[in-house]
Amino acid sequence: MPRRRAGYPESVATRGQRRSAADFLPPDVDDLDQLRGAAAGCRGCDLYRNATQTVFGDGAPDARALLLGEQPGDREDVAGEPFVGPAGRLLDRALAEAGIPRERTYLTNAVKHFKFVPPERGKRRLHKQPSAAEVSACKPWLLAELRLIRPEVVVLLGATAGKALYGASFRVGDRRGTVFPLPEIEGVEGVAVATVHPSSVLRADDRDAAYAAFVADLRVVAEVLAT
């Protein structure tokens, strides 16, 4: 009989069993603060081992728009809040230009822990794309957020966000700037709009053009919210 690891539920104590956030999700949760508190202790994948803390979603509990990114970055990992680094500041500016008040949105990520490449001495930690297994392990938190908030529109910020909800075949280029139905999620009705992650705008060769295209996508979201 394998020994149960301290702090782990019995369902994830045995090596070889697939873990996920579902093992840490409270039953019948009906409050975002309760959900956030439970996520702080998530050990559903191994990313928690090197991350500073869980970075849960944040924003209006009755938000009409939920913006879904990939994972927290270096600044977010330290602060414990999503989208507070350079990409978050660019997102703030783009939302304002598109006519979407950030305080009326909810921002979260497909993966709640920072995955990064071990830094060289004195260097900033650089993000590493989460694996499909890590995205899948974290998905119960995302689904719980969606069921509690029930947004009218989900903004998919990049490929990882799209794959978290639609599977591995999702391509941003196929759906960018268009409105399409959310996948079937119990208790949730609404639509999605796909665009790039704001960090890709910061990396673009022609940053002005990339930013203008990003704002144009967010204006599609604003049009949905205006109807």
Automatic annotation (TrEMBL):
Q: Where is this region: Disordered?
A: 1-25
Domain Uracil-DNA glycosylase-like as annotated: residue spans: 56-219
Q: Which SMART domains match?
A: UDG, UreE_C
Tell me if Magnesium is a UniProt keyword of this record: no
UniProtKB keywords = 4Fe-4S, DNA damage, DNA repair, Hydrolase, Iron, Iron-sulfur, Metal-binding
Q: Which SUPFAM superfamilies match?
A: Uracil-DNA glycosylase-like
Q: Read off the CDD domains from this record.
A: UDG-F4_TTUDGA_SPO1dp_like (cd10030)
Q: Does the keyword Iron apply?
A: yes
Which Pfam family, giving just one, matches this sequence? Answer: UDG
For this protein, the record's InterPro entries field holds: UDG_Type-4/5, Ura-DNA_glyco_family4, Uracil-DNA_glycosylase-like, Uracil-DNA_glycosylase-like_sf
Using the record, list the residue span of the signal peptide; answer none if the entry has no such feature: none
Q: Which NCBIfam families does the annotation name?
A: UDG_fam4, UDG_fam_dom
Name the family the entry cites: Belongs to the uracil-DNA glycosylase (UDG) superfamily. Type 4 (UDGa) family.
What is this protein's name?
Type-4 uracil-DNA glycosylase
